[in-house]
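help with this record:
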Amino acid sequence: MSQNPENPYGQPQPVPTPEPYTQPVQAPAYGQQPPASFGQQPASPYGQQPSPYGAPPVDPGKTLSIVAIILPFVGFGLVGLILGIVAMNKSKAAGFKNTLALVAVIIGALSVIGAIIGAIVLIVFLNSASEGIDTISQIIQACQTPGTESVVVGATENS
């Protein structure tokens, strides 16, 4: 018999086999769903740790201020001015300083002022043009009447 205390009956010991080799998980072919274990790391013994930095805060008036800057250039100055003021108020309420909103308010205000000045100039021009057209039509009518040698329009005499 065998003198081995662990194997008193002398039976042959099985040869220890190494741990079975596991194949690495391969990426799925294009268009196939990945297996449930693909790309996962082993679970942490302490659970999911939050990231040390969160997502940066987003200014709620940023997109609105960009739209408000563009609108005066396509003919909507008053709408751009109003949206710029709204964007500035939203940013201020969220604790942000929105320079784009300030630029939008300035561009919108300049656009509205330019439109008002342009409207006044157009009205004055059309008014003076209508007076000139009336004067020209009076001269033409006076010249077409037979027997007139000179025409008096206003204070000037035209021959």
